[in-house]
Design goal:
The structure holds 3 protein chains of 3 kinds. Chain A is mainly α. Helices cover about 75% and strands about 5% of the residues of chain A. The model of chain A has no long low-confidence stretch (mean pLDDT about 85). By secondary structure, chain B is of the alpha/beta class. The chains are: A mainly alpha, B alpha/beta, C alpha/beta.
């Protein structure tokens, strides 16, 4: 599943979620704003991150594959629709040098962005991630934006993704067992199949959220005011190092591109 | 000739990932036509996975499943399998999406492509088996029923397929005493009509009461198989699988430990009472 | 007290009067729809009575300003193990309650460790809830209450969705909470063999208390319980049968242990 937390011990798991969030943004910025040098630096740091987080390659591959279609489509669009010097043509389809270059660039950039995202989510539980976001966004609270509530809702949504996924599979199985056709011909039948999944799934989600709201109330939850945290967040050396490294990479990537055109 | 045969089935979820879990590890099983087989095992023993193999929702990663001699890996056979082996999952009432009980039960028969008259016949028959009033069925939303009634409607929605084999996963989980009685009565009626029933359960009192064959499953393997009397005679094995003995067998086993001269693992309270009276009488004469 | 949903509907609870003392273990049994869950939800103010009143340590649940304090004293565990866990890991979930009451990080850490030890969840501290068994999820829900150091715990059919092994561990944990920490327990259940271990049993039927007393009084063959469509605990049923067949046995026999030792004495 995309963005699933992977419960293992690692240096990256132990980093402060704020440091991880900021570093992720810095790294993505370096990759997106930089040229080839930016991609190289980003690639190196991402690879180091994957190793430090002890993420099995199989897991990475499976998560990336989930986005395969979207990635492939955007790369193809770049390749096929960028004007320039034609190297290959078949009927109306023309492939240009510029298209190939920008296609490959895009592929690398998307992959790096996705990989950094995966490192972040597989090493940080959603509640920790949420508290990180909440602390980073705290200044917005002064503008009257309910930061805590939004973040809490998000983190609960993430906590329930595996539960709802399981429930969806359960319902699909039940409907398949009654001959509902999710695949195969017939638009009408397919529409009916979608309804047979969506209606019970929504009913279930509503029931769950109702239950959960009651349970949270019973556990003294009254919004963000007066709440404390078990993990008081303090930046440690590793967090500062991580930020320095990603920050430097952004500066380097931009400088190299602007000055040397790399 | 068994109606269902599973040969050395292996199945793992999330295969090849760090969270891979082996659900079935070389399970074999044969079910003869018209029997009531209980798959006894605690949560996570793999019994739900077995049931999903019966109607082709899952295919074995190794080994094979034969239903009426046909292999479930055969795609064209699988297309008709759902109606041959009716599967009632755990908490089946979570599948409801129609506006009335009647149309909910009609989903399966409609998908079989039957005529409206035939569909109606089957729905009414299924509702009768589970004891839901037909007039109410046309007027009420399935979500407006009580928990026990919802469970029975879900059961009827599979029975309306008239499956030759019925596979049930914990059919009485979370249902109160009276509700349980009604479900078991429906299952007994079906069995007497010749339907083959396979029920996964961790409630051994239910198993002792209903099944004529028990397969104890532990960690995806069949640990023990036999009649309820044979299976519940080997308490060690049942306990090893994380299960309790049925209450009457438990009492008799405890009395045996205390020196009562009894071999029979009673399956019902009546049997236990009869056996105890016999033993107490014998002890008194001996004294 | 009386409770009804909305104004014109029938009463779900129909004139209930009861006291629960500190340290007492009360089991509430009754058929589905008899109002036992509704009753449970009045104890910590999740519902407030339409007529009459409920007080917890002298605080009225109808007064909104008392509610936070009431919920610090009365914890609640629900039937569905999935729908009450908030945290993405065992540890985070247990911390949720103490975090809500503004406890300091050090104290939260200490309470969480204490609760994990009591509930036997130490090894699972970093595990996400969806990778726990049903029984472990309920142990976790109980641990979340233990971490808040409430004196009273209300459980609404906590074992109806889990297997026999999970049920044993949940019941084991409850008896530990009672014995070691003198916790007040209110257990709503439809498993009669669980009710047998309570100090007091209440039987609800159609919104009122139809029978009440120690398990011994309630399950006696002359009790009002008979004929209410409720299951009997196995030992009670078997001993009643044996008595009818002429054996001299006490009325009632509540547990298998008791039954076996009575029979050995014959």
């Amino acid at each position: 599943m995309l963005g699933q937390y992977l419960p293992v011990e690692s240096a990256i798991h132990r980093l402060d979620p704020r440091a991880k969030l900021l570093s992720t943004f810095l790294l993505i910025a370096a990759v997106m704003a930089g040229g080839w040098a930016g991609m190289a630096i980003g690639g190196l740091i991402t690879a180091a991150g994957v190793m430090a987080a002890r993420l099995p390659l199989g897991v990475l591959w499976r998560q990336v594959r989930l986005l395969g279609l979207i990635i492939l489509a955007s790369v193809l669009v770049q390749i096929l629709f960028t004007p320039g010097d034609v190297v290959l043509s078949a009927g109306p389809v023309k492939v240009t040098v510029q298209g190939l270059v920008s296609g490959v660039t895009l592929l690398i950039k998307i992959l790096l962005v996705v990989l950094t995202g995966i490192i972040l989510t597989s090493t940080t539980t959603s509640l920790r991630l949420a508290s990180g976001i909440e602390l980073l966004l705290k200044p917005l609270g002064r503008l009257g934006i309910p930061v805590h509530e939004i973040v809490m809702a998000l983190s609960i949504a993430i906590r329930f993704i595996p539960v709802i996924t399981e429930e969806a599979q359960h319902i699909i199985n039940a409907q398949l067992s009654r001959g509902v056709a999710f695949y195969g011909p017939g638009l009408g039948r397919r529409a009916k199949a979608v309804i047979s999944l969506v209606v019970p799934l929504l009913t279930g989600v509503l029931r769950r959220s109702d239950d959960l709201a009651t349970a949270m109330e019973a556990r003294c939850y009254r919004g963000g005011a007066g709440r404390t945290r078990m993990h008081a967040m303090v930046f440690k050396r590793a967090d500062v190092m991580c930020l320095l490294m990603t920050g430097t990479s952004l500066v380097a990537a931009v400088l190299l591109r602007v000055t040397l055109g790399l | 000739m068994p109606i269902i045969r599973m040969d050395n089935i292996w199945y793992a979820y999330n295969r090849g990932t760090p969270i891979q879990t082996n659900a079935l590890s070389g399970l074999s099983l044969a079910v003869s036509r018209g029997s009531f087989v209980a798959l006894a095992g605690h949560t996570g023993s793999g019994k739900s996975t077995v049931l999903q193999h019966l109607n082709g929702l899952l295919l074995p990663q190794k080994g094979r499943v034969l239903v009426e001699e046909a292999d479930t890996r055969d795609k064209s056979f699988r297309r008709s399998l759902w109606a041959k082996v009716g599967l009632v999952q755990q908490y089946p009432e979570r599948q409801f999406f129609e506006e009335t009980v009647f149309s909910e039960v009609a989903v399966g028969p409609n998908n079989l492509g039957l005529s409206p008259a035939e569909v109606e016949d089957r729905v009414l028959e299924a509702l009768a088996v589970v004891g839901i009033d037909r007039k109410r069925a046309r007027e009420t939303s399935p979500y407006a029923l009580s928990g026990g009634e919802q469970r029975r409607v879900a059961l009827a929605s599979v029975l309306a397929l008239r499956p030759g084999v019925l596979a049930l996963d914990e059919p009485t989980a979370g249902i109160d005493f009276m509700g349980r009685q009604r479900i078991f009565k429906a299952l007994a009626d079906l069995k007497s009509q010749g339907v083959t029933i396979i029920m996964a359960s961790h409630n051994m009192d239910d198993v002792a009461r209903m099944a004529d064959r028990v397969v104890v499953i532990k960690e995806g393997r069949a640990l023990l198989e036999g009649s309820p009397r044979q299976v519940f005679a080997s308490q060690g094995c049942v306990r090893e699988a994380g299960l309790n003995l049925p209450f009457p067998s438990e009492v008799m086993a405890r009395l045996r430990e205390k020196g009562f001269n009894t071999e029979a693992p009673a399956l019902t309270v009546d049997e236990a009472a009869e056996e105890i009276i016999k033993c107490v009488g014998a002890r008194k004469t001996a004294q | 007290m009386v409770y009804r949903y909305g104004n014109n509907s029938n009463n779900v609870l129909n004139g209930i009067t009861a006291d629960i003392s500190r340290g007492e273990f009360v089991a509430v049994i009754g058929p589905n729809g008899s109002g036992k869950s509704t009753l449970a939800r009045h104890i910590n103010g999740l519902l407030v009575p339409s007529e009459g009143q409920v007080t917890v340590d002298g605080m009225d649940t109808r007064e909104p300003e008392s509610i936070p304090e009431i919920r610090r004293r009365v914890g609640f565990v629900f039937q569905n193990p999935d729908n009450q866990l908030v945290g993405t890991t065992v540890e985070e979930d247990i911390a949720f309650g103490p975090e809500n009451t503004g406890t300091s990080p050090e104290d939260i850490r200490e309470s969480v460790d204490f609760a994990m030890t009591v509930a036997g969840l130490r090894e699972l501290a970093g595990r996400p809830p969806h990778m726990l068994s049903g029984g472990q999820k309920q142990q976790l829900a109980i641990a979340g209450v233990v971490a808040m150091k409430t004196g009273c715990l209300v459980l609404d059919e906590p074992t109806s969705m889990i297997g026999p092994a999970g049920r044993r561990s949940v019941m084991g944990l409850l008896s530990r909470l009672k014995e070691e920490f003198n916790m007040t327990l209110v257990l709503i259940t439809h498993h009669m063999e669980e009710a047998v271990f309570a100090d007091r049993v209440m039987v609800t039927v159609e919104g009122h208390i139809a029978a009440e007393g120690t398990p011994r009084e309630v399950f006696r063959s002359t009790s009002a319980l008979y004929g209410m469509g409720l299951e009997l605990p196995g030992p009670v049923e078997l001993s009643n049968r044996l008595r009818a067949l002429g054996l001299t046995l006490p009325d009632p026999v509540l547990t298998v242990d008791e039954l076996v030792s009575c029979l050995c004495l014959l």
